[in-house]
């Protein structure tokens, strides 16, 4: 079954889609050099501050531009088992990693997720769980309340609310996705969980105005999230690997006033278990789980090398984020 045929999938194109010409052939082809022959930027791992565990791509939704193409039937990344995750937690502990992030798919669909989350907190890590706060999460209310009581703000849930309007959110996430997400957010907030929201901007939408609209929504709904705090309301740039974007050269950093230390692969990695592979492996980041050039090895020790920024997501999402590095 295709993702679009999934029950409750959005009927039309995403309201957040990137409007840009197709990516020309020849770009992002060589890890060392860009299409124009310049030296491609790369990023060393400075310290593994956050280790992401991908719990599997299965999801109760099939959002229009889900970068990982999750759906109720896509198990290209299988459920990460508790046993398979433990060696990575051991390694992360030895490295002094602060935070374990969980993403999917929808993490609460993985039957071994709750024990894994508990193990993570028991070991003293901060835990960050990305969820849509819908039925799969609500099935685990009792276990979540017990974790909140025991670990308090060591556990944070970051809930996707793609837009501050129901139309924007459901245009991306499908009909009848707004109400359950709002109920889930109200439940988390009402029970005092450490809470964040991941949102997006429509093309041309002004960030300050969007934050004001989110703030009004949160006030109306009794959701305790500071919409002015970029760490609590995270507004992400859009991604589309088929759309044209500039490649990132070593010269871009100074032009943009940015540093390789600013991008996620300087401080994080993600464990993925690909279907058909005997064991999980480590990808450079959360955004590129399938590409062999971004497969870093089967342990955190192996995965500590430099990452060549040889993918459109490196440019559009991480480095440019709406800026341009042409001088
Ligand atoms: S809820 Fe998240 S993982 Fe699931 S389809 Fe939507 S964007 Fe993808
Ligand atoms: S998309 Fe590229 S630049 Fe961004 S974190 Fe991943 S590998 Fe690094």
Automatic annotation (TrEMBL):
It comes from the Bacteria. InterPro entries: Aldolase_TIM, Radical_SAM_PqqE_MftC-like, rSAM, rSAM_sf. Keywords: Iron, Iron-sulfur, Metal-binding, S-adenosyl-L-methionine. Residues 1-40 are annotated as: Disordered. Gene3D superfamilies: Aldolase class I. It holds the Pfam family Radical_SAM. Its cofactor is [4Fe-4S] cluster. Residues 35-274 form the Radical SAM core domain. This is Radical SAM protein. It comes from Qipengyuania benthica.
